[in-house]
Every structure is written in C-alpha cells, then in structure tokens.
Amino acid sequence: MKHAAFPSDVAYEYEAVPAPTKAERRPGLKTDGERLAFALSEILNIMAEDGWDYIRSDTFSTESWTDVTGTAEKSQTILIFRRPLTYEAVPEIAPAPRAAAPNTPKPEAKPLLLTEPTLAPGTVNLPSDW
Predict the structure, then answer these.
(1) Is 79 exposed, middle or buried (0-12, 13-18, 19+ CB in 10 A)?
(2) From residue 84, how far is each of 48, 87, 107, 125 by CA, in Å?
(3) Which of 4, 16, 36, 114 is deepest in the core (most CB within 10 A)?
(4) Does residue 57 sit within a domain?
C-alpha cells in the first residue's frame, strides 16, 4: 500500500541528550525510581523552556575500552527532542513553491567532485592482498 506524500511547511531541528543513569539524592525522594523520575522530569522541563518537544528515547549499544583485556559492550539511552525552525531565522530552508511555472528553466546539474577517501585517525591502510 502506497501512502501519499505528506507535504509539510515545517522543518525541524533535533537534539539528542543522554538520559540520566544515576539520580542524586533529594529530600522527599526515597526510592531510586522516584529520584530517576525527578531527574528525567528536570531534563524535560529544561528542554521545554527552550521550545524543545520530547519525541522519544532510544537505547544504543556501544563498545568501550576496558583495559588491556579489550572492549566491553555498554548501552546508553538517548532522549530525542525536536523544535520547529522558523523560516525567517534560516531563509535557505524556506519551502519551495508547490508548482513551478511551466516555462521555468531547469537548474544546471553541478558536477560531483570525488576526493580521495580519508582514513579515520588511528586506522591503518592495509594492502589489498592482506
């Protein structure tokens, strides 16, 4: 089933914030769940003051170095927020007109410039027959 495209005149910017993993003690908050909920609501309220809407949270698995024994897998929960961009603030993202005039010339295609791939710091370029 195909869905029609949903035209939107609103563009968003997104912000990813690490979720609290350990909540500090507060008077009146007795359990870890109460403390964590308080810390989370503080983050949500601070972001809302700046116009950010909470969208979702995602948990990502990452590898981190432990010591000489190698790596260990850790997970980190990230909170995702968004807020609408105003076109006055960022004019280059203003929506395109809905329908182009029939005699409008098409813009010229810009050539694609390819550059040599660069290696991330600390990586080694091994021979292809390795």
Answers:
(1) buried
(2) 13, 9, 29, 43
(3) 36
(4) yes
Q: Contact 77/18 with Cβ under 8 angstroms?
A: yes
Type of residue at 82: R
| Residue 113 belongs to a domain | no
Q: What is the pTM of this model?
A: 0.55
The SS3 call for residue 34 is: helix
Q: Tell me the pLDDT of the chain (130 aa) as tens digits.
A: 555 555 567 788 899 999 888 878 888 888 888 888 888 999 999 999 999 999 999 998 887 777 777 777 888 899 999 998 865 555 555 555 555 556 666 666 665 555 555 555 555 555 555 4
**Lookup result for tokens 């410039």:** 113
Residue recorded with tokens 């195909």: 2
Residue 24 lies in a domain: yes
CB 20 within 8 A of CB 40: yes
Total residues belonging to the chain: 130
Structural domain containing residue 71: 11-90
Number of domains observed in the structure of the chain? 1
Establish if 40 belongs to a structural domain.
yes
